[in-house]
Amino acid sequence: MTQESQAQSENAGTLKGLLPAERSPSTVRRRTLWSALVALVAALLAMLVWLAGIYEANQVQARLERDVAEAVGDVRAVFAHNAQGLQALQYSHPTPNAWMIDAGTLLREHREILRVEWRDSALQLQAHVDTPFRVPAFDRQGRSDVQSEVVAACANARRFSGPAYASSYFMPMADGLGLEVMEFCLPLQSGANVTGYLIASYALRDVLEGSLTRPMTQNYQISFTEGDGTRLAVFGSIGRGSRIFTARQLMNLPGTSMVLRMDSWRATPDLFPNVLTALVTAMSIALVSVLALLGKDMRRRFKAEHDLADMLAFRKAMEDSLVTGLRARDLQGRTTYVNPAFCQMVGFSAEELLGHSGSAPYWPPESGEEYRQRQLIRQAGNLPPREGYESVFMRKDGSRFPVLVIEAPLINAQGVQSGWMSALLDISEQRRVEELSRAGLERLQATARLATVGEMASLLSHELNQPLAVISGYAAGSLNLLRADPQGAGPIGSEVRLALQRIAEQAERAGKVIKSVHDYVRRRDQVREAVAPQALLDAILPLVHLQARQLSVRVRAEVETGTPCVQCDRTMVEQVLLNLARNAMQAMDSPTILERSLLIGVRAAKTNGTGKKWVEFSVTDLGEGIGPEVQQQLFKPFFTTKAEGMGLGLSLCRTVVEQHGGALEFAANSPHGTVFTFTLPAAGVA
Amino acid sequence: MQPVIDARIFIVDDDASVREALAWLLRSRRLHSQVFDSAEAFQQQLESAPGAAPEQPCCLLLDVRMPGLSGLALFDWLIERQLQLAMPVIFLTGHADVPTAVDAVKRGAFDFCEKPFSGNVLVDRVEQALARSDSLLQARRHAAKVRERQTELTERERDVMRLVVAGLPNKLIADRLDISIRTVEVHRSRVFDKMEVASAVELANLLRDWQG
Predict the structure, then answer these.
(1) Does the pLDDT at position B11 exceed 70?
(2) Which residue of B has its CA nearest to A512?
(3) What CATH fold (topology level) applies to the domain B153-211?
């Protein structure tokens, strides 16, 4: 691995290590911060609400003070106005009767005045008028009861030398209710002498009702009180709230210490006493929500970031642990990315590989031109084969190695091709294995050739031996006859005998030549070893599968459990199995045969009474079977049904099997096809 | 060229010229032979013959490699019928079949002969085989004769004979069988008559041959 990629993997390691370790303290800190923030916001909110409440109370109080001052002004204005009106009654020094008409008019205009009296300087009643709006109260009750108040008021008036009032008193009425009444005394002066008094009785509640404006009476409860707080007259709506705002102001009327009191109220359940508080609260809530959302978003971002880092580390680890080399190139052919496996494969560091356009450093110089051409073709937009192609790359040390390159277009997020992505596999090991299996294949094929030659020699020797035996037989027989016949002793007889002897000798010589050739070819005949049947099958099955794939034949190999090893010439028996399997598969190579199945079975054979154990091999096909006329000649040398066959295969098989003492037979398979069976001796018995 | 020995030689070979040459060669040595072109034909001949056991000395020249039933298979068939002793088998082989032939000899074949055989060597082996067959048949005939003669003996005579062969004198035989010496002598002479022997030694030899 190069230094660079090591550094990369270290980075990935520390990154991965940091993230989870940092997490728990940061969580604690974050929680602390969050709770502090929440507490602060709550405190702020509470304070804001409280301050807003106080502010509002102050506002209300201030307005109340203002209103009470105004009300006091109004009431005083009414009193002052009435005083002037009363003064006006005496302007023309009227007679009591005329005065009474004017006073009646006045009373009709001023409902708050209950009664007006004209008294002389000794307080003796001259004339009086009662208000037309009420039942004359003083008629029923008598005036004498309130004489003290009148006296007190007039005493005050004399003392002040001007109009004065007396303390109020309660006057019960016929309907069970009562009136708070206050006496007013206006001294009538002529020069410095007091000539009489005008006494006016005010109903205090009517004063309030008459002097105050409507909005004021609607919003407040207004009352006259004594200096000690005793209520004298109340007017205005009655509030139900418990928060009462109160303002008092002295009426400052001469002769009385009456105070005007105004009460305002607020409903208790009012959480947001005014708009400001509500606004502040709403904004605070909004602020908290925004903060919470922000926090949530931050958390999500943090999590996403964390996940991303995790994913990145995982990707990186995955990339680094890949054995497949990865290489990305842009559309200009520049290498933009390589993974460590690729670096390791070619032996160059990533820096040496990145950014190369034109020929890459891992291209063998002798193939550079070819690769450049290939790249140009690719850049022209031709897709490389999906299953990949093979190429040869060069390591940094100059050694070549075969690779499988699988290349695909690199499509970016916008769906536009941004380059090419290649996966590269070092297939040198695979090649080596292939080479080995090819060597095994070649060995089997060489053996097959050798076996065929041997079989041919064997057949030739057999075929030649027959006529030689005939020749030799006739020569020997002729000699026998000549010896027995008396005429054979003659000169011609001896010549013929000599010739016959030569013939016999030559026949024998020919036989010896053939034998020596045969022995040479068959010198490895006597190799016998104990071989497990499975090992025999394992040796030939790869080759069988190879052909089976071409002919789409399903191959089954079954070795019955407990089958003993066989004592045999391994190489030759492999040839037998291979020949039979090949024949079987070729027998099924016909378009009419749909189910193509080859079964190679091995089992212990039934003993044939000689005490020797045998192993039976069977090769079964589902072909069309063997016709009767073919059966006759099946084992005949040089007989074949195949166009390119030599006709030695089955003959060879039979020879080999018989050399082992076994027998090769065939039978029809049901429902169709053929079973070839041969036996070989079991090992360890013979 | 008439056969002088009353023997039968069977030749089984799928090659006609070989069959003929062999027959001719044997005839040149005054040996009669009968040829078959396949193992199956020979099987048929044997099975159709009245007696399973051959009456006269015989011998089988058998080619190892033939289409159809092979020489070895025929040999196995003969072993099954226990004919391989009375009818010695000489295998005719090519070079390739030598190991097979050796194996067959181990299992009771008389011999094998590699083709091309050198003239009279094969005929000599055939004669030896016939001689073996002849002696075997004679032994069997002898045994059959002894068995037949024994059946003519009475129970008492058989008892006497057993004791005579054991080498006991007449007196002891009489004691053992609880009969008089005179009676033993009568039995003894009858046994000798029936078994066609002249002495006790001859009788013992006869029985030993039969049993052996």
Answers:
(1) yes
(2) B116
(3) Arc Repressor Mutant, subunit A (1.10.10)
- Does A475 share its domain with A385? no
Q: Whole-angstrom Cα distance, residue A677 to residue A679? A: 7
CATH number assigned to the domain comprising residue A113: 3.30.450.20
Pairing of strands B8-12, B58-63: parallel
Q: What is the mean pLDDT of residues A629-655?
A: 79
- Rounded to whole angstroms, the Cα distance separating A168 from A171 reads 10
Find the helix packing angle between B181-194 and B170-177, rounded to 10°. 110
For residue A229, what are the domain limits? 73-266
Domain end call among A521, A538, A566: A521
Distance CA(B62)–CA(A177), nearest Å, equals: 165
Residue A381 falls in which region: left (phi positive, over 0), alpha (psi -120 to 50) or beta: left
Q: How far is A630 from chain B (nearest CA, A)?
A: 13
Class of domain B8-142: alpha beta
My answer on whether A79 and A116 are in the same domain is yes
- Mean pLDDT, rounded, for A17-43: 73
Nearest CA in chain A to B104: A661
pLDDT of residue A520: 75
| Residues B99, A480: C-beta atoms closer than 8 Å | no
Disruptive mutation site among B92, B95, B123, B126 for chain A (greatest number of A CBs within 10 Å): B95
| Residue A350 counted as domain residue | yes
In a shared domain, residues A587 and A545: yes
Domain residues of chain B, as ranges?
A: 8-142, 153-211
Q: By the 8 A CB rule, do A353 and A360 touch?
A: yes
CB contact under 8 A, A518 and B96: yes
Q: Look at B116 and A519 and tell me if their CB atoms are within 8 Å.
A: no
* Element at B11 (helix H, strand E): strand B8-12
The pLDDT-based confidence of A137 (bands split at 50, 70, 90) is: low
Residue scoring higher pLDDT (A270 or B210): B210
User: For residue A303, is it within any domain?
Assistant: no
SS3 A585: helix
User: Per residue in A330-381, pLDDT tens?
Assistant: 888 788 888 888 888 888 888 888 877 767 788 888 888 888 888 778 777 7
Kindly report, residue by residue over B169-195, the tens digit of the pLDDT: 888 888 888 888 888 888 888 888 888
- CB-based burial of residue A345 (10 Å sphere; 0-12 exposed, 13-18 middle, 19+ buried)? buried
Residue among B1, B67, B96 minimizing CB distance to A462: B96
Does the pTM exceed 0.80? no
